[in-house]
Specification:
The chain has 317 residues and is mainly α. The chain has 14 helices and no strands. It has a single domain, classed as Na+/H+ antiporter like fold (Up-down Bundle). Helix 6 packs antiparallel against helix 7 and helix 7 packs antiparallel against helix 8. It is globular.
Amino acid sequence: MLEILAITLPIFLLIGAGFTAARFGLMSRDNLQGVGTFVMYLALPSLIIRALTDYPLAEVLNPGYLLAYGAGSLAAFFMGLALTVGLRGKRLDAGAIHALGMSASNSGFIGYPVALMAIGPPAAIFMALNMVVETLIIIPLALILAEAGRQNGNGLGPVVRQTFARLTRNPVLIGLLIGITLALSGLRLPGPLAQAIDMLAEAAGPAALFTIGGMLHGLKARGMAVDVSQVVLGKLLLHPLAVLLAAFLLLPDPDPLMIAGALLFACAPMISVYPLFGKQYGQGDISAAGLMVSTLASFVTISLMIWLLTHYGLLPL
């Protein structure tokens, strides 16, 4: 158990440091947004570029991992949609936002630091592949369905075009494109530039965790028990289970390290911008509360996942 805490405790101490800094006014909301912008636009793309250029391209572009993680995430998404819209009778836009919270992990801000501590450098490769799934499939699907629910299916074409136009400006996808181009061409970055990218990549994990902690300050979770419980349990329990089942059902001989990486990312809380998406469709309070509760609860679920992976020999400590 002490070995597991050695992995998870530093992660949540950094989150706690961010929360404390916001609580006592050392960091304002604008300051935290600035750090988050640094992580999203500089540190994470640099991390992806380094990962894609440090390993053989055949090892990086792992179709089995993409298939298992993508299928598991889609399964969690549609189960969340069916539960919210079909069983509970809520509107499609609310169902799409609930489903997004249950299926899109915070791969860059929490999943990567945890996986790095647990499995080492391959965590960067898995993070890059996860972000392909999240930014190209899960998030666009959720926004398109949410807009369809709000507009009752009218004028959906422009929404689809605008969604994919925004994706072309996504810094994570730009980092993916640069990294793949370098890997395919065999070109090497000049020494000073490569060193700068390496320094930015090293800053991604700590800065991301600190930002998450600061953004949690001020969020409340009162009066929304059913909705928040559904999103949190779906994200922390259903999503990892769906990814695990997809790996065993779709892959003939899944690699233990690949399974461990996929599960560590899947049991991370939802994406940090989840409340921003929720606010656009009248789900701001629920999505903010869901992010807060899932981030706090993930200390237990991530520690439990590491223990299970170690117990079953998928994750040697």
